């Protein structure tokens, strides 16, 4: 877990120096801290989500993905406590029988996104000249940058109250990929026909979740190519094939006869089914 306190202190020190340069560096520190705190939460959840399934890398989008895929309660502040006594059926333990284990401060992805964008706009880009006489300034507007850094610091202070992290609560479903990695998902957030990539960054396999009643099964998402020599079907990970550019040629050795085969994407004319 990231300790935000030294970053907050460093940012405050830079602000108090109150020069155009130091205030700009303070904005950079604050912006990096927003990224770090979001990415750290992602790191904690990586058992539940593959890096390949992240469509966007901006901190607020990362948090949005975590909310929709791993933990729908990530926006809420939660405190975990455990009872000093073992639980007995039918007996409600007293409130003072609980010990606090830790707190996770909830994320507001919208606020984080706004601060992160505003810091860059005000402090980390040079203004584009509008005409020939327009001078290129060294830095942005000091007062505006300061105000935004102070806003970001307030949010970072709030987030620094986190003493533990959850990866969500709820029923888990899991399957073991061909590469041997066990993949876990929160059942309540998994959709029928959802495609999930293996969490192992070295593995190209992806799986389609099928919901039958309350149960999930996982089917490997593959493309089948027939061997040119022995006509055997060869199954390839879909993500590997999908990543191939149109003019690129892929190859594989047949699992049956070891013949080297080549393949490429082709454009095919189609007719609409209905009408
Ligand atoms: Zn795998
Ligand atoms: Zn073959």
Question: Could you walk me through the main structural features you see in this protein, from its secondary elements to its overall organization?
Answer:
The chain has 275 residues and is of the alpha+beta class. The protein has three domains: 5-75 and 107-128 and 138-159; 172-198 and 206-219, no CATH class; 223-263, no CATH class. It is 32% helix and 21% strand. The chain has helices at residues 5-17, 20-44, 59-69, 109-124, 142-159, 238-242, and strands spanning 78-83, 98-104, 172-176, 182-186, 195-197, 206-212, 215-220, 222-226, 233-237, 250-253, 260-263. The chain has a three-stranded antiparallel beta sheet, with no helix packed on it. A hairpin with a 2-residue loop joins strand 6 (206-212) and strand 7. The longest helix is centred in the N-terminal third of the chain and has 25 residues, at 20-44. It is flat and about 75 Å long. The model has no long low-confidence stretch (mean pLDDT 89). It binds zinc ion (2 copies). One zinc ion binds at residues 227, 229-230, 232, 254, 256-257, 259. Residues 227, 229-230, 232, 254, 256-257, 259 line the site of one zinc ion.
């Amino acid at each position: 877990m990231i300790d935000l306190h030294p970053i907050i202190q460093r940012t405050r020190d830079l602000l108090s120096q109150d020069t155009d340069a130091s205030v700009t560096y303070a904005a950079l520190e604050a912006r990096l801290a927003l990224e770090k705190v979001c990415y750290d939460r992602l790191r904690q959840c990586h058992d539940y989500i593959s890096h390949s399934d992240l469509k966007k890398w901006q901190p607020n989008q990362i948090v949005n993905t975590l909310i929709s895929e791993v933990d729908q309660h990530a926006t809420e502040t939660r405190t975990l406590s455990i009872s000093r006594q073992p639980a007995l059926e039918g007996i409600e333990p007293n409130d003072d029988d609980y010990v606090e284990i830790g707190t996770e401060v909830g994320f507001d992805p919208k606020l984080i996104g706004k601060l992160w964008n505003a810091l860059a706009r005000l402090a980390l880009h040079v203004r584009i000249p509008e005409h020939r006489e327009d001078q290129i300034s060294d830095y942005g507007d000091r007062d505006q940058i300061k105000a935004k850094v102070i806003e970001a610091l307030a949010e970072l202070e709030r987030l620094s109250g986190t003493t533990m992290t959850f990866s969500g609560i709820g029923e888990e479903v899991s399957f073991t990929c061909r590469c041997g990695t066990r993949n876990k998902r929160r059942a309540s957030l998994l959709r029928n026909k959802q495609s999930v990539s293996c969490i192992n960054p070295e593995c190209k396999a992806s799986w389609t979740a099928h919901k039958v009643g309350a149960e999930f099964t996982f089917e490997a998402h593959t493309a089948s190519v027939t061997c040119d020599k022995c006509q055997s079907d060869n199954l390839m990970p879909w993500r590997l094939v999908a990543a191939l550019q149109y003019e690129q040629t892929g190859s594989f050795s047949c699992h049956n006869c070891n013949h080297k085969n080549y393949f490429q994407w082709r454009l095919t004319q189609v007719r609409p089914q209905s009408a």
